[in-house]
Amino acid sequence: MRPIRAACLGTATLATLLACTSVATAVTDPGSAQGGGGERGRTITLTAEVAQVTRFPVSSTPGVISQGDTVVVRSDLFDEAHNKVGETHGSCATTRGGADEAEQCLVTYVLPDGQITTQGVYFNYIDQGPFDSAITGGAGDYEKARGSVHSDTIATTPKVVRRFTITLY
Known about the structure:
The protein is mostly beta strands and 169 residues long. The chain is 0% helix and 50% strand. β4 (84-96) and β5 (102-111) form a beta hairpin.
């Protein structure tokens, strides 16, 4: 099976994958920050520009989204001043094909002070979301992280650009 490279997935997360406060972001509940996973009680908002995306289709018919298709994506993450502060790395497996497709996605957010891992089902990924996923853990300053990530697509041309709102509980 040959991969099909897309210049613009017309999509998350990727998702992926997905603006606008610095990585140092505001603490939404200063009393809830704790050590060893001490990023709790924070909301981090970043923008993401899709840098690479490849779809591995199971159907030989161009443009047909089928159960079993796989998408691999990498995005660059930026703070409010458009300084690159990290990357996302993710993969999605199509679990429901057709016009109303669904994709099970695993995404890791690589940030200067650690990593955040997420998982979720994205509906109509090709149509750009919005998407929500659960934080399943992390490393570094995000060890034992829990919470959620909300992704909004804010542009599709010339690049897919997403806003990720990461809420740590």
